[in-house]
Design brief:
There is one protein chain. By secondary structure, the protein is of the alpha/beta class. It is about 35% helix and about 20% strand. It has helices spanning about 5-30, 45-55, 70-80, 90-105, 145-155, 180, 190-200, 220-230; strands at about 60-65, 85-90, 110-115, 130-135, 155-165, 205-210, 230-240. A seven-stranded mixed beta sheet has the order 3-2-1-4-5-7-6. α3 (about 70-80) links the parallel β1 and β2.
Length: about 240
C-alpha cells in the first residue's frame, strides 16, 4: 500500500467516525419523551408490525434490532410476536432510556441490550433467527460492512429485514447539508442499490416493496416538503441467508 493510499484510507475512517458521532449526538438530543410509544420513522409501528408479519417472525425466535433506539420495536417483538428481543445501539444514553422502558414493563428476562457499532458487532455467528434494521442502514457509513455483520449474526435460513429511506432523485442527498445524514437522506440508496448491497453481502432477497405512501407530506414542514417530496421514498426489503 502506498503512502497516499494509506492517507486516503485514514481520511475515510476519520470521516466515518465523524458521521457516526454526529448522528449519535443528534439522536441523543431528540426528545423521545414527546411520544414514548411512537416510532420515530416513516410508517411507525404499523409498518413495523406489517413487516414482521411478512417476514413470518415466529414466537420464540431470537431477534436482533440494530440501532434499536429507546426500544419501541423491542417491545413489539416481545409483546406482539413473543420473541426474545435483543437491541443494539451505539449510544449508551439511548440504551439507558431503552432499559428504563423495557424493565419498567417487566421485560427484563426477555431482552438484552448491547452497546456496539453496527459495523463491528460482538455477536456469536449464527446466533439469531432474524435481524431487523429500521431506517438506520442509511445512517451507516459502511453499509457493506454492516450488512456483512448482519449476515454473520443470523443462522442459515435466517432473515435480515430492512426498512429505509430510498433515493429517487440524487439531488435530495444535497438538501440540508450535514443534517441530511441525521435525516437518513445523505446516506440513503435507491431501492435497487439496497438490493444489490444485500445480495453482495450473501443474502437472497425474497421480498421488496416501495412503501413511499407512508410519508405524510401534507403535514410536513413546507421547506422540507419542497426540498424532498418526490425525491425520496421508503422501502421494505427482506433477505434470507442461504
Amino acid at each position: 500500500m502506498t503512502r497516499n493510499s494509506c492517507i486516503s484510507e485514514m481520511s475515510e475512517q476519520s470521516l466515518d467516525c465523524a458521521i457516526k458521532k454526529m448522528v449519535t449526538l443528534f439522536y441523543e438530543n431528540v426528545d423521545f419523551n414527546l411520544a414514548p410509544q411512537q416510532a420515530m420513522r416513516p410508517g411507525g409501528l404499523k409498518l413495523t408490525k406489517e413487516v414482521l408479519k411478512i417476514a413470518e417472525v415466529q414466537p420464540g425466535w431470537k431477534v436482533l434490532d440494530i440501532a434499536c433506539g429507546t426500544g419501541t420495536t423491542l417491545i413489539v417483538l416481545i409483546r406482539d410476536f413473543k420473541c426474545h428481543a435483543y437491541g443494539l445501539d451505539l449510544s449508551a444514553k439511548i440504551l439507558e432510556k431503552a432499559k428504563a422502558r423495557l424493565y419498567g414493563q417487566h421485560y427484563r428476562h426477555l431482552t438484552e441490550l448491547i452497546r456496539a457499532d453496527s459495523e463491528f458487532m460482538p455477536i456469536r455467528q449464527g446466533f439469531f433467527d432474524a435481524v431487523i434494521c429500521e431506517c438506520s442502514l442509511s445512517l451507516f457509513p459502511n453499509k457493506s460492512k454492516a450488512l456483512s455483520e448482519m449476515v454473520d449474526a443470523v443462522k442459515n435460513e435466517g432473515k435480515v429485514i430492512i426498512t429505509d429511506v430510498t433515493i429517487k432523485d440524487q439531488a435530495a442527498k444535497e438538501a440540508g447539508g450535514a443534517a441530511a445524514w441525521c435525516m437518513c437522506v445523505a446516506g440513503a440508496e435507491t431501492l435497487e442499490g439496497y438490493i444489490k448491497l444485500m445480495e453482495n453481502a450473501g443474502l437472497k432477497v425474497v421480498y421488496y416493496k416501495d412503501v413511499s405512501e407512508v410519508y405524510d407530506w401534507k403535514t410536513a414542514d413546507p421547506e422540507l416538503r419542497a426540498a424532498l417530496q418526490g425525491k425520496i421514498g421508503y422501502a421494505v426489503i427482506i433477505g434470507v441467508k442461504p
